[in-house]
Structures are given as structure tokens and as C-alpha cells.
Amino acid sequence: MKYTYIFLMLIVLSCQEEPKQIEHVTISEENIEASITAIKEVMSAQEIAWNNHDLEGFMDGYWQDNNLKFYGSNGLTKGWKNTLANYKKGYPTKAESGTLRFVINDISKIENGNYWVMGEYHLTRPIGNANGVFMIIFKNIDGQWKIVADMSC
């Protein structure tokens, strides 16, 4: 009986699939650093455009597509044009847009070569300052880093 049990266990174990090997894709630190640098450059250009009250220039950092998603205090907005319209409505003059400064707290690579950026925004304005936090997702589209999703509050 004892040998029968051992024999059955060997059969059961031999019928199981072998564990699959997990392939690890190694991305060089240089590629990651180059991506992070490029993302920071996009955000720096956004600050400059915003501070010149150039909302279209600010939106150059976003994916110009109907699938862009922006989630803020007014709920979910889909699409580049709708997001720009919201910015124009909320910040119609330089007094409302003020001076923007980003504080980047983390940039991390996520799946498929996308990155998320977590940080803070600070608006200094004559009508009263506004501060908040954001989490944005960048994707490299046709060789350019673009924001494909933004959650700011």
C-alpha cells in the first residue's frame, strides 16, 4: 500500500506542467534616465507655456486624441479638445492662470514603457493661490512623450 501511494504521487507530479520560465526584459538605466529627462522637459515646457498664459502651448504636452482622460474636481473629461475647453473656461485670463510651478515627487516606469508622474502644482495668482496634487501617465507616442491620463486635484 505504501508503495502504491508513492507510485500514484509520482504519476500525479509527473503530469503537472513544468513551471514556466519568466522572461525578464532588462531596460538599461540610461534608457530610463533618458525617458525621465524627456518627461521633465515636457513638464518644463508646460510651465513656461502656462506662465505665458498660452493654454494651447500647455496642452502640447497632452496626447491630442479623443482618448485622453483628465480627472479633476469637475469629474472625468475625455478628449484633448474638451480638456483644453475646460482650461480656457477655468483660466480665462492671466489673473486666473497665474504662475505655475510643478514639484515632481516621483517618476516611475510602469508596464509597456509608460511612466507615471506624481507631484504637486502650485499656482501663484493675484486672485488667490491654488495648490494641489496630480498623478499623470506619460506614453511615448511617435517618438514624443505625451500625457495620456491626468488626475489633478
Short summary:
The protein has 153 residues and is of the alpha+beta class.
Overview of the structural elements:
The protein is an alpha+beta fold and 153 residues long. It is built from 5 helices and 6 strands; from the N terminus they run αααββααββββ. A 6-stranded mixed beta sheet has the order 2-1-6-5-4-3, with helices on one face. Strand 5 and strand 6 form a beta hairpin. The termini are far apart.
Tags for this entry?
globular; single chain; 6 strands; 6-stranded mixed β-sheet; alpha+beta; 5 helices; 153 residues
Task: Give the topology.
Elements: H1 2-15, H2 29-51, H3 55-59, E1 69-72, E2 75-78, H4 80-90, H5 94-97, E3 99-109, E4 115-124, E5 130-141, E6 144-152
Parallel strand pairs: 1-6
Antiparallel strand pairs: 1-2, 3-4, 4-5, 5-6
Main sheet makeup: 6 strands, mixed
User: What fraction, in percent, of the residue positions are helical?
Assistant: 25-40%
Radius of gyration over all CA atoms, rounded: 24 Å
As a percent range, the share of strand residues is: 25-35%
| Series of H and E elements | HHHEEHHEEEE
Helical segment count: 5
Mean pLDDT: 87
**Judging from the principal axes of the Cα atoms, what is the shape?**
globular
By secondary-structure content and strand pairing, the structural class works out as: alpha+beta
Distance between the termini: 69 Å
Unreliable segments (pLDDT under 50, ≥5 consecutive)?
Answer: 1-26
